Amino acid sequence: QEGRCLYVILLMALYWCTEALPLAVLGILPSNKVCPQYFLDTNFLFLSGLIMASAIEEWNLHRRIALRVLMLVGVQPARLILGMMLTTSFLSMWLSNTASTAMMLPIANAILKSLFGEKDTSKDMKRENEENQASLQQNKLYTVPTEMQFLASTEDKDLTEEKEVASDALSDLKKEEEYKTNIWKGFLISIPYAASIGGTATLTGTAPNLILLGQLKSYFPECDVVNFGSWFMFAFPLMLIFLLLGWLWISILYGGINLRGWRTKKSNIRADAEARAREVIKEDYQKLGPTKFAEQAIFFFFCMFAIMLFSRDPKFIPGWASLFAPGFISDAVTGITIVIILFFFPSQKPSFRWWFDLKAPNTETQPLLTWRKAQETVPWNIILLLGGGFAMAKGCEESGLSVWIGGRLHPLEGVPPPVAVILITIVIALFTEFASNTATIIIFLPVLAELAIRLKVNPLYLMIPGTIGCSYAFMLPVSTPPNSIAFSSGHLMVKDMARTGLLMNLMGVLLLSLAMNTWAKSIFQLGTFPAWANIHAENATSLLTAVENVTLSAL
Q: What distance in Å separates the CA atoms of residue 189 and residue 254, rounded to the nearest whole number?
């Protein structure tokens, strides 16, 4: 039975990696066991996040936030890259990584065009200087000395000075062109990287985080330490540190920060370009007009959405869910309760005159979000894909495949847990460069759960690094949709992403290992082997014995 499940798992992994069939239509197990996996608590938490994101996009609140942040950080290239990364990562915490990247890239392109609008003119100036230099060299060859030695020496001196000036101007233009090209690359490459990093900060930020939550409830039903609040306390500081280090690396690599030229006087060309960029950002912000009532309402409900999810059960203090019976309120109930309000709350400021004057006009107003709009904008295929992943996890559990795999992991029992964290993160980060992060984590999580039981460590100690590591895909355009979107602009090369992404991957692995061995230990109680994992280990041992007995009897 476990062999049949392994065959199906490998076949599904092949389909997922090659995308020979749409990811959303693939599933396993009989329908009576598969169907419930598509309507788990985790799926509805994800759905609530997608609906909230649809409302934000409907009223352009995300664009207003992005432009406002860029106005605050300034227009120097390094500051603009920081502003782009901060904004993209914040949006990616709530929107999908792909949507955040697709929204920010047009803004980046508009700013870049305002910064480097003189590109063609610069080429003409370069060509003109080359012609002048050639002319000077030709004039020098045919200079005839006059009778007056002083005048002749003066002419030679002036000619040499003019040649040096032309040569310096040509060199400056070459440096300026190289600077522009590097800044352009830095802008474009920073946005997808920030989206991938930002998505790890919240449970609803990216699909792998929710798959971890769903598989924890499947494998370890008694595990209650992972929720929106505890995940945010762990992942947000990690995201912030990684984002700042990534910004420093991109800025140094692509010229946003020049370590050797802090006191170098800014050229007039760059000063003019920054002034134009400032005007473009200001102009785009003014086009949005004054803040609408709908935007204010969406922002209020968005803040309520985040605050209520965070404060439901933050673990370090009793949350508001403690007012109800244990297990009565979950993150999904909280999220769905907030987003339901969006479907009837008015998008225009209501008038209450008709309460006091029956003859006053009472016109209907559009709600903040209509169901038709939600149907069109919510990526339902991702929800189906999550269901397929949970169905696969259930198949591994029902067939005994995960236990069988765990029984074959004896050689790894001697590996120190901190080393195991680093190795797991490296392997998964490399694997996800060639496969989608959702498919990657669905394949690896059952193995990591069983490996943790074999090592007698808290399963979260291995499963959390594996989950976050599959979002660290920076080296190839095909690694993630955000990378592909940025690469399709035509200004990036594969070698640009490879050399930048290699160090990003290494930084991510080291920072994740640091986080798991410091503040994550107190948040998720990683220092002990928990009782909820011990129960699963006992059940797994009995199941493994049964599987081995069946195998021996068959032989």
A: 10
CB 182 within 8 A of CB 499: no
CA atoms within 13 Å, Cβ hemisphere of 202: 22
Separation CA 57–CA 368 (nearest Å) = 11
Helix (H/G/I), strand (E/B), else coil: 145: coil
* Alpha carbon distance 223, 213 (integer Å): 10
End-to-end CA distance of the chain: 14
Strand partners, 367: 346
84 Cβ contact partners less than 8 Å away, ≥ 6 residues apart? 70, 104, 107, 108, 187, 190, 191, 194
Interatomic CA distance for residues 203 and 216, integer angstroms: 13
Q: Which two tokens stand for residue 267?
A: 């050229």
- Compute, in degrees rounded to 10, the torsion defined by CA atoms 345, 347, 349, 354: -60
Q: How many CB atoms lie within 10 A of CB 76?
A: 15
Of 27 and 241, which is predicted with more confidence?
241
- Considering only CA atoms, give the Rg of the chain: 29
Question: Residue by residue, what is the 3-state secondary structure of 32-72?
Answer: HHHHHHHHCHHHHHHHHHHHHHHHHHHCCHHHHHHHHHHHH
Q: How confident is the model at residue 543 (pLDDT cuts 50, 70, 90)?
A: very low
Instruction: Provide the residue type at 204 as one letter.
Output: T
DSSP for 214-255, written as a single string? HHHHHH-TT----SHHHHHHHHHHHHHHHHHHHHHHHHHHTT
CA distance 532 to 539: 11
SS3 category, 178? helix
Q: Quickly list H helices, 254-367.
A: 268-287, 293-311, 331-342, 353-356
| Cβ proximity of 511 and 245 under 8 Å | yes
Paired tokens of 157: 């001196």
**23-50 mean pLDDT:** 69
Task: Kindly indicate the confidence band of residue 26, based on its pLDDT and cuts at 50, 70 and 90.
Answer: low
Report how far residue 147's alpha carbon sits from residue 412's, in angstroms, rounded to the nearest whole number: 93
Residue-wise pLDDT for 185-232, tens only, equals 888 999 999 999 999 999 888 889 988 988 888 888 888 889 888 999
Which residue ranges make up each domain of the chain? 1-119+170-350+379-554
Report whether 312 contacts 25 (CB < 8 A): no
The DSSP call for residue 264 is P
pLDDT above 90 coverage of the chain, percent: 19
